[in-house]
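Record 1 of the preview.
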Amino acid sequence: MSSAKEEARRSAAVTLSDMEMFIFPELIYSLVLANLMSPRIWAWRDDPWFDGVERMKPYRRITRLKQYIMDHYAFNLDLDTWGLTTREREMERFGSFIAPETLAQSNALFGYEGDKYYFDIDIRTHFGLDKYDGEVIPYWKTETVEAMDAFRHKPEYQHGAGECVSLATLYAAALFVVARIPLSDIYLMATPLHSQNFIDLDDGILTNNRRLVTKKMWCNGTALSAQARRALENERVTIVAHETGVLHTLYPEATMARSSCDLFTEKIGHFLCTPLSDELLGNFLRHTQDIQRCFQVRCSRHGQDRYVPMERVFAYEQGSPYRVTDNTRAKLMDEIAGEEFCDQRLPSRIVFDDLEAFVKDEQIDIANDEGVRRLKEQFASDCLNAEVALESLVRFCCTRPQLPALANKTFMTDQEPLGVDAEMTRDEIEARLDSIRGSNVMADLAFHAWRDLSRIDPEPFLVAAVQRCPVSKEAMAALPEREIYDALNAMANQSIYDGPVRLAQPDEVWNFKTGDGLEKAVLMANVLRAREPETKLKLQLGEGEVCLRAGEREWMFATTKALGSAEWVVPG
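->
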């Protein structure tokens, strides 16, 4: 890798935007490792909520963790938090590393819209980008656990928050630290518009933003499962990340172990496929609302057959503990108002009970052509295109994920294993990762993502600060220098990053209205650099204070960060 690309990757490890993770896929796991080193997550072990968690079975531990995350973090994906950039600007950054047409095929911010589903919803309108010029794209930055926690400083948030990659990497680290799930059993998957994890436990578990999805839930037809299915049904998986390395759909080299790739492919394939059953048939109709109008449910009332439109039955499911697809159907039907029933079979509608009995008795194998033919006959109706409905049913039962192809990959074997296990303390993990930085790129980048300025060169951090923090820059663009200085000193003086060597970026300080003096000095440098691109800016660090110099002008800030005496030149 060229030195320019390596510097870009290290700086990207500080920014941690979605587009940077697509181009430098190692960044996803570097954030997992940064969170793994964070005292914040290790402190969860002392929360009363997790008392006795080590005595619970693995699945119970994971559900306990899920509820904790549900209670403490919200999903956030707005355009204001981390600001906006343009495709042209970012392509100028990345143009020497990746072709524009390649980006457009695979990254949502550069034109990718997936299949018909994403064209139908209009991606830019869906994300609120339609009010901007077509070249404008957001800086969707992935938050560390510290930045996620800091959202509680914002008046509109009661708890922490983060976007989907933030939640996926938080889950991965917390699964290891709190739920004691081995890193070898955790796989991160990124698609152009989403990120989620697969946990190799029992039949498998998906994390989907804050929630969990089991194999049984995957095919239950509910709104939650529909949301979870969306990415794997409609998008290609561009990145798979694991403790052994990463696999990218576009890059010919893979650092993820071939054995781990094969195991993941097998396990996720099993998770996403379920044999057709009478219950699954009902779940399919619950999931596929547009064909419910072609079905009806039959039940007996006072010795006579009565019929109810399928869509009305599912409407009554809402808010009811009973389901039409299990042994509580009779109780659900008892809740349906009498005027919903019809004395006669509704014309052109398939009787769900008959189709259900056929599937149950015949044990149809939808992977078999003859089974599909026989089932298609049962779907015959003037109301329904049987072939289209059957194709939808097959896809519902068995999702074929668009995983990175392995056939033409070159698997690199020279990367030092992480060597992190559940018996290690936080300090031991940090020391282990530090010791292998020269032979494991994910470990090296973890210290940039962790913002440890005592163990990384400040240059990548400062490049990220003055080139990719537009929110603070825009907010203070019109203020005189004295007002900027006074506004920064009026903020709280507490860094969102614990300890004496870790630093927040300018937009983190601005968004959460709190920061150490050194962080405030970097923020002011960000504003001045935009105004005066030719002025020489320096940060002179000393004991308990930092001086920002702009030519002959200077501003002093008190700091509790302890990075020694140093002079940092702010890049242009």
